[in-house]
């Protein structure tokens, strides 16, 4: 469960590659050979018998990798068609292209050339990788659209497409396709398999990345020596290669063993189960206070409280206004209740230093949250702010100023937009023309209309340059601004601390987690972990992992009430 791996932004990857080459211990051509060998190897693992492969090579080093794949598959008995671009590649890619040309021709990289050939068993997409600087245009855009299904048969290519580093056109920093709507599009290039090098990039895990990359394999190409973790080195230019501050939690893809965290996994598993020596009495596991709302609104906070109990907080107290107390008389009996009507009553409770973690927001009501937040934040205790507490925060800059590093904000996209409207705005793109379902993709008239709309859309966005602003950027900027941990929820949850450390958690495999109340449970789990003494970033990260694992354990049909009840099973097998 607790495997993690480091993620590198494309800038970090380039810096590490340059550092490796500058050392004189490895050349660019050697790295390219290793990259191409890794891709060819993965293809041969999956297609046991040599067949026909079409290799599409772009103008840069991604294309260079493609020429290596072409040569190695040819040597392995495959029939190889290579389509390449006119542009002059760099020296390493030029060399790989020349080596291929000693074996076979390079056809033009056009839709016509591709369609003129027989159907291939495998299509290798080596057009663009980390060097994408702008939306693909013209003939390249057309061929990528064709591979994405504009010819009507997207499933055909989806089965056969192997992407080198990423499906071409995907921005590996954001997981979005520059020049396209951020929502899923009809002709987004979707690969069966993506082989990436050294480390996953944010774009493999965010937004469109997980779906469009298909199965993701991270290949070790021998750059470990230039990727040493030295977190204390500060933000000097060279430290960009040395401090991969972003990690993937539960990556769900093949990572070389050397890139995992087995020790941390073992330690956290026994810690979660309270199996460590001297784990003490109930107060040593903390006391979480869950603020609840007025009459008829208490369900959300009860979900949080149940979750805090199940994740192992020593004591959990639910604090609704006194008039709502009777509603909370039912189970669980393990839960304590205490009426809290106003800030003075809350301060009274917080006079007990053993109350070491709070959760406010689920079912709380915005006014009540606004009234209680100054007392809560002023106490300086570890605090989860969710739902109504986030809305209250968005309305009062004075409250924002009270946030501190032991706070965890857990907004979904809508709440994030309320609290950080300018950052959310940067993530937004102009809306695409109305999109239909893929099932209509074989209607030729509709297809022509969609292509025309897409061309107009591209034209409108043609001025856009450079890497896209990502959910990772947004969460980091938000955390830095408010001085607290920000957990931006979604199937690609991003968790960021004010110092820039960040974690990405992919939960694209549990869409049934998007159900009413799931967020309340997450808030409670994190509050419980805070009560047990985890620092804010770790509590948010581990909480997110455990939450998704509980959803996996229950499966489709899940309702939020099931999540706390699934926690014992998850804790029994935290490594499973
Ligand atoms: N980072 C590493 O350590 C390694 C990287 N390698 C490969 O190198 C790739 C990166 O190579 P590059 O930096 O050359 O970048 P790419 O090969 O991804 O693309 C850059 C080229 O495409 C052009 N370009 C970018 N966007 C375009 C657009 N929309 N339309 C037309 N042309 C466009 C650029 O001007 C440049 O010529 C990686 O993705 C990977 O496949 C491997 O060869 C080995 C090691
Ligand atoms: N498509 C999805 N796949 C997996 N998890 C998702 C998806 N959409 C949302 N989630 C997760 O489900 C939970 C929903 O929380 P939230 O939006 O706050 O719902 P609520 O307010 O109803 O509790 C979050 O943990 C979020 O990360
Ligand atoms: K590619």
From TrEMBL:
An annotated Gene Ontology molecular function: ATP binding
YjeF N-terminal domain boundaries: 13-229
**Do you know which Pfam families this protein is assigned to?**
Carb_kinase, YjeF_N
Q: Which cofactor does it need?
A: Mg(2+); K(+)
Q: Which domain of life is it from?
A: Bacteria
Q: Where are the transmembrane segments?
A: none
Statement: the UniProt record of this protein carries the keyword ATP-binding: yes
Could you tell me the EC number(s) of this protein? 4.2.1.136, 5.1.99.6
Which InterPro entries does this entry report, sorted A to Z?
A: Carbohydrate_kinase_pred_CS, CARKD, Nnr, Ribokinase-like, YjeF_N_dom, YjeF_N_dom_sf
- According to the entry, every stretch annotated as the YjeF C-terminal domain falls at 265-574
Report which reactions are catalysed by this protein: (6R)-NADPHX = (6S)-NADPHX; (6S)-NADPHX + ADP = AMP + phosphate + NADPH + H(+); (6S)-NADHX + ADP = AMP + phosphate + NADH + H(+); (6R)-NADHX = (6S)-NADHX
Q: How is the cofactor bound?
A: Binds 1 potassium ion per subunit.
Annotated binding of K(+), by residue: 62, 125, 168
- Identify the residues that bind AMP: 489-493, 519
The reply on keyword Cell membrane is no
Residues that coordinate or bind (6S)-NADPHX: 61-65, 129-135, 165, 300, 363, 412, 520
Coiled coil spans:
none
UniProt KW keywords: ATP-binding, Isomerase, Lyase, Metal-binding, Multifunctional enzyme, NAD, NADP, Nucleotide-binding, Potassium
One GO biological process term is: metabolite repair
Q: How does it assemble?
A: Homotetramer.
Q: What does this protein do?
A: Bifunctional enzyme that catalyzes the epimerization of the S- and R-forms of NAD(P)HX and the dehydration of the S-form of NAD(P)HX at the expense of ADP, which is converted to AMP. This allows the repair of both epimers of NAD(P)HX, a damaged form of NAD(P)H that is a result of enzymatic or heat-dependent hydration.
Q: Which HAMAP family match?
A: NADHX_dehydratase, NADHX_epimerase
Per the record, the similarity remark reads: In the N-terminal section; belongs to the NnrE/AIBP family.
Protein name in UniProt: Bifunctional NAD(P)H-hydrate repair enzyme
The source organism is Paracoccus pantotrophus
Q: What is the lineage of its organism?
A: Bacteria, Pseudomonadati, Pseudomonadota, Alphaproteobacteria, Rhodobacterales
Q: Which gene encodes it?
A: nnrE
């Amino acid at each position: 469960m607790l495997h993690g791996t480091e993620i590198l932004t494309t800038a970090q990857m380039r810096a590490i590659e340059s550092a490796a080459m500058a050392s004189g211990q490895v050349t660019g051509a050697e790295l390219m050979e290793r990259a191409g060998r890794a891709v060819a190897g993965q293809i041969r693992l999956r297609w046991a018998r040599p067949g026909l492969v079409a290799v599409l090579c772009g103008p840069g080093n991604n294309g260079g990798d493609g020429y290596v794949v072409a040569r190695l598959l040819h040597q392995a008995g495959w029939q190889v068609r290579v389509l390449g671009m006119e542009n002059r590649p760099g020296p390493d890619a030029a060399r790989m292209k020349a080596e291929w040309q000693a074996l076979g021709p390079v056809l033009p990289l056009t839709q016509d050339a591709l369609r003129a050939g027989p159907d291939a068993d495998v299509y290798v997409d080596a057009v663009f990788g980390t060097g994408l600087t702008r939306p693909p245009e013209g003939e390249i855009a057309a061929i990528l659209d064709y591979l994405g299904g504009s010819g009507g048969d997207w499933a055909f290519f989806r089965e056969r497409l192997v992407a080198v580093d990423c499906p071409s056109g995907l921005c590996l920093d954001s997981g979005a396709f520059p020049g396209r709507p951020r929502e899923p599009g009809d002709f987004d290039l979707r690969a069966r398999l993506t082989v990436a090098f050294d480390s996953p990039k944010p774009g493999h895990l965010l937004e469109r990345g997980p779906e469009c990359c298909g199965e993701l394999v991270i290949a070790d190409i021998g750059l470990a020596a230039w990727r040493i973790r030295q977190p204390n080195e500060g933000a000097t230019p060279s430290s960009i290669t040395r401090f991969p501050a972003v990690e993937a939690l539960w990556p769900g893809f093949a990572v070389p063993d050397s890139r995992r965290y087995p020790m941390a996994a073992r330690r956290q598993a026994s810690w979660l189960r309270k199996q460590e020596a001297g784990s003490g009495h109930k107060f040593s596991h903390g006391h979480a206070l869950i603020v609840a709302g007025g009459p008829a609104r208490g369900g959300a906070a009860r979900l949080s409280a149940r979750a805090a109990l199940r994740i192992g907080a020593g004591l959990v107290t639910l604090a609704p206004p006194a008039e709502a107390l009777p509603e909370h008389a039912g189970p669980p009996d393990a839960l304590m209740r205490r009426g809290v009507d106003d800030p003075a009553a809350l301060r009274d409770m917080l006079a007990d230093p053993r109350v070491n973690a709070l959760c406010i927001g689920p079912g709380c009501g915005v006014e009540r949250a606004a009234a209680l937040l100054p007392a809560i934040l002023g106490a300086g205790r570890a605090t989860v702010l969710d739902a109504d507490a986030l809305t209250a925060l968005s309305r009062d800059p004075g409250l924002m100023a009270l946030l501190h590093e032991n706070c965890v904000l857990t907004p979904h996209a809508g709440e994030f937009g309320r609290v950080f409207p300018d950052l959310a705005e940067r993530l937004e793109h102009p809306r695409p023309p109305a999109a239909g379902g893929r099932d209509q993709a074989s209607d030729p008239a509709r297809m022509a209309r969609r292509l025309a709309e897409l061309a107009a859309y591209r034209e409108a966005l043609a001025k856009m340059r450079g890497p896209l602003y990502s959910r990772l950027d947004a969460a980091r900027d938000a955390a830095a601004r408010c001085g607290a941990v920000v957990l931006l929820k979604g199937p690609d949850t991003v968790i960021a601390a004010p110092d820039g450390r960040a974690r990405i958690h992919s939960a694209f495999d549990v869409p049934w987690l998007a159900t009413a109340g799931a967020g309340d449970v997450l808030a409670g789990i994190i509050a419980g972990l805070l009560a047990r003494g985890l620092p804010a970033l770790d509590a948010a990260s581990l909480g997110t992992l455990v939450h998704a694992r509980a959803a996996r354990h229950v499966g489709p049909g899940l309702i939020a009430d099931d999540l706390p009840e699934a926690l014992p099973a998850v804790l029994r097998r935290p490594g499973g």
